[in-house]
Amino acid sequence: MPLENFFKSVHKLFVEICWSHWKRLGAHVDGPMNRCSTDPEALIILTSLIGREDERLLEVMAQWIHHYERLIPIERMKSLLEQTPIEPETHYSLLNSVIHSSLHENQKARWKTVVDILKSASGSIEEIKNYRVESRKKLEDHEKIVKQNIHLTLRYIFGSGCRADAYYCLIVSHKARESRFHVLSDSQLASCLHYHRRSVNYVLNDFRDAHLIEKKKKSAQKILSAYDLVDGTLIKVDRTVEEKAYIDWLKIVFMLMSLKDLKRKIKGIQNKLIIKKRLHENLENLKGLVAEAYIPLVRSLPLDQPLKEIPIEDLTDSILKTIEGTYRFIIGPKGLP
Fold first, then answer.
1. Has residue 239 been placed in a domain?
2. Cα–Cα distance between 297 and 229 in angstroms, integer?
3. Which of the two ends of the chain, N or C, has the fewest CB atoms closer than 10 A to its terminal CB?
4. 41-80: b or e for each residue (b if 16 or more CB lie within 10 Å)?
C-alpha cells in the first residue's frame, strides 16, 4: 500500500472511531456505536484533530456543545488540553472556532480559561465558521441520549466534575466483564480520570463515608489502598446501553497525534530504511498507548529478520491492524445498532 493511501486509511479509521463515540453521545447517524466508556472532553479534542477529514463531525460537535456545555467540566477540559502536545498544523484554532460559534454570550465566561489556552496556542481565531447550533437536527431526542448514557446522567446528578466521573469509572470497572481492572487504587483512578490526585482522594473519602465504596487490600500487587463499590449500593438507573469496559480516551487522542507526527517525520524522505525505522517506532508507540488505554489488544510484528528486509507494507499493515483492533474493541460485538 502506498504511504499516501496508508495515511488515508488511518484517517478513515479515526473518523469512524469519532462517529461511534458521537453516536453514543447522541449523534443522529447510522453505523456502529461505542460500547465502552464515554469521555466527551477527550472526544472533543479527538474530533478537532480529525474533523477536517469529515466536517459533519464538527457540525455534530458544535450542536452537542451548544446543548450540553454545562455537562463539560471546565477544569478537566483544561487539563486534557494541557496534556495534549501542540502540533505544528494546530487543531486549536479549529476547536476555538467551534467553541466560539457554539456558546451563548452568557456561557462564554465559564469557558474563558479554555479559550485562553486555545488562543495562546493558536493565536487569534483564524476563521470563524458559524455552525447551525440552535437546531437539534443532528442529535437524537434528549430522552434517548440520556437513556443510553449513565455518564451523562451522573453528571446531571452530581454536577460535571470529579465526583460524577469517579463514580462512573467505579461503576463501569465494577460491572464490566472486559475491563482491564476491577478494583482501582486512588492513584490509578486519578491517572485514568485525569483529575488531580487530591481531588480524587477527597471524593473517594466522601464515597467511603457514605458507604458507597470499600477499601480493599491487594497485597499480591502491592496496592494497599484500593476501592470497589459496596454490593447493593449501585445507583439503579435503567440504561439501554451498558459499557463493556472502561478505557482512557486521551490515549486514543495520543495515538492519532503520534500518527500525524509520523506523517510529518517521513514526508519527503526517500531512504526506505529510515522510513521503516520511523514506522516501527510508531508501531511500538501505538502498542504502548493501546495498553495504557486499558484496551486488551496486542499487535506485534515479529522481528525475526533485520528491519531492512521487512517490507514497508508489513509495517503499515501492522499499524492499521492495531488501529482496526482498537476500533473493533470500542464498538464491540454489539456495536452495530
1. no
2. 27
3. C
4. bbbbbbbbbbbeebeebbbbbbbbbbbbbebbbbebbbbb
SS3 224: strand
Whether the CB-CB separation of 256 and 50 falls below 8 Å is answered with yes
Name the pTM for this structure: 0.90
Question: Do residues 155 and 117 share a domain?
Answer: no
Q: How many CA atoms lie within 13 A of 290 on its CB side?
A: 23
Q: What is the mean pLDDT of each run of 10 residues along the chain (337 residues)?
A: 91 98 95 96 96 92 93 95 73 84 88 88 58 71 89 94 93 72 73 91 90 68 55 60 91 96 92 94 94 80 74 93 95 62
- What is the grid cell recorded at 290? 493501546
**Based on the domain organization, do 38 and 165 belong to the same domain?**
no
Count the domains in the chain. 3
CA atoms 14, 18, 23, 28: torsion sign: negative
